[in-house]
Model the fold of this input.
Amino acid sequence: MKAIFRLPFEEKFILINHHEAARNVASFFPFTNGKTIHLQAENLEVCTSEELKSSFFEVENFPEINAELNIPQHEEYLQKLEKAIEIIKQNNLPKLVISRPIAKEISSINLEETYQLLCKKYPNTLCYLLISDEEIWIGATPEILGKFNKKTHEFFTMSLAGTLPVDEEWSEKEIEEQKPVTHYISEILKKYVTLSEVKESETYNHISGNIKHLRTDFTAKIGDNRLEELIEELHPTPAVCGIPKEFCKEKIIEIEQYNREFYAGYIKIETEEEIYYFVNLRCAKIYKNQVIAFAGGGITALSSPEKEWRETELKSQAILHHLQ
Done:
């Protein structure tokens, strides 16, 4: 088992070749209950693009596709979204996040070229590739669930929600979709702050390739003994789930009828100075003859099912359009 990471705005890569009995340096957590993958190593190996060896990307056998995966087509997905909107209205929910797997047939794939292209196209994301005996995941996620500085105890997180093509104007739907995420994060952080107040930025545009999101940043100082507790309470945020959390998780499983696995879960990476937690978005699972991307959107009472379908098409292209 092995993984490679490129942190946002960084040029160097973090390589991990898993060794049992070493310390945990990175982990992949599922959206909800399920398998967690822990990567163990004595130290993080850091290298430049020139030092990166092609042999790291070699795979003996690509996994076979699971025929049981439910992949909804256009009309079926629109029906799922109509059901979600009905539940939102009946229960007066601020939002509910519905997603779908999107399949693309392939005859072959070059993991190294695909990964390098993602790094080039999305410099402000965590670009990763996870290779295990059972599965291969790739992603370029724009969302930080948390970043903790071990020396200063400063914690950073963001409210990232609402999605449009970069050339379109924000509507009431996207603005109202982001508000509950911001409020949710702010209220949780206030419970954990020990050394300062919670600082909240103005809301601004976050550009990720061909799409943009509404983003609000938060910083606060917290004790390291409560870090994991904070992350567990933040995840899953309304940006990938909804409010109230447990009710929305139940409805997501009921409506989507597929296992999100690591999609909308989170990835933890620990370096010497910082601990990072990234929400696993803009990701895909790679099989022998198929790539399954995952994409979703925040559904509100104002949502248009057809527009939400187009949003998932747009998001899935972050990976599917760059396969090599």
Remarks:
- The longest strand covers residues 154-165.
